[in-house]
Write a structure and sequence with these properties.
Elements: H1 3-6, E1 11-14, E2 20-24, H2 26-34, E3 38-43, E4 49-52, H3 54-57, E5 68-71, E6 74-77, E7 81-84, E8 92-93, H4 99-105, E9 122-126, E10 141-145, H5 146-152, E11 174-175
Parallel strand pairs: 1-7
Antiparallel strand pairs: 1-2, 3-4, 3-7, 5-6, 8-11, 9-10
Amino acid sequence: MSASILDLKTVLVLNRNWQAINTRTPAEAFCQMATTAATALDVQGQDWMVPTTWEDWQQLPVRECDASIGTARGRIRVPTVIVVANFCRVPKKRPKLNSRTLWERDGGRCQYTGRNLDAGEGNIDHIVPRSRGGETTWENCVIAAREVNSRKADRTPEEAGMRLLQEPKAPAELPVTMFLHNTHGIPDWDPFLVN
């Protein structure tokens, strides 16, 4: 295993209630295990998962399907899932503001006309235009039909004689588990992810 693989976020972090809360690199996971801040899960299918301390982890045999690294003591398995010892809550975060999440928040409707838009038919409108100091925030951005946005140009809705259907707001914060994705296709993660 090359050093670059040790730096990929391929270890799922669970809180002590076994809820997914983060990802770590194998190097970070080894550090947490060695300092007893976390234990690794010895996963052999969805029905067999055993929390394993660092001392016991070093003694586990490396199976053919396991990623491993070489050490002075021999090869050691790279964990795929660890459980932190002293953390029980699931952190929350807000979705990242981009055209997809804004589209979801606004239900794919032009926020000036109420018309349902097809994909690619709308774009992001800054209520207070950027040219006039408007920022790219949840509260200052809406989905608008392209022709409506062009007609509004660099004016405020009031100046353009337009009215918003509703005041834009930031979406609620969601459990961080909703944002974790198994981009590396690690089967051991599947029982813990919402996706």
